[in-house]
Specification:
about 90 residues, mainly alpha, 2 domains, two-stranded antiparallel ribbon, about 5% strand, globular
Length: about 90
């Protein structure tokens, strides 16, 4: 069964983003509500991931997959001995 909520704040909390991010994404057409006006959390995750800018968002997932870091690399399993591969340390 789909995980649905009518609250933008609740959907944002479940996705780990701000409600402002949700409002902007909806306004620009990156995400859409269901026909009944509710948010489908699983569909939102896919929509946000597919439309995320990898240079600006951790939601894109590609930055971590490519070994590019924006912060500390300590404890990163993808980096040998804490040395970032192809990124900044």
């Amino acid at each position: 069964m789909a995980e649905l909520t009518s609250s933008t704040r609740e959907a944002a909390r479940r996705l780990g983003v701000s409600d402002t991010t949700m409002h902007k994404a909806e306004r620009t057409g990156r995400i859409r509500r269901e026909p009944d006006g509710q948010w489908d959390i699983a569909k939102l995750r896919v929509q946000m991931r597919e439309t995320a800018d990898p240079q600006r968002s951790t939601l894109a997932g590609s930055a971590a997959a490519e070994g590019i870091h924006r912060g500390s690399t300590r404890g990163c399993a993808a980096c040998a001995g804490g040395q970032a591969k192809g990124g900044v340390r």
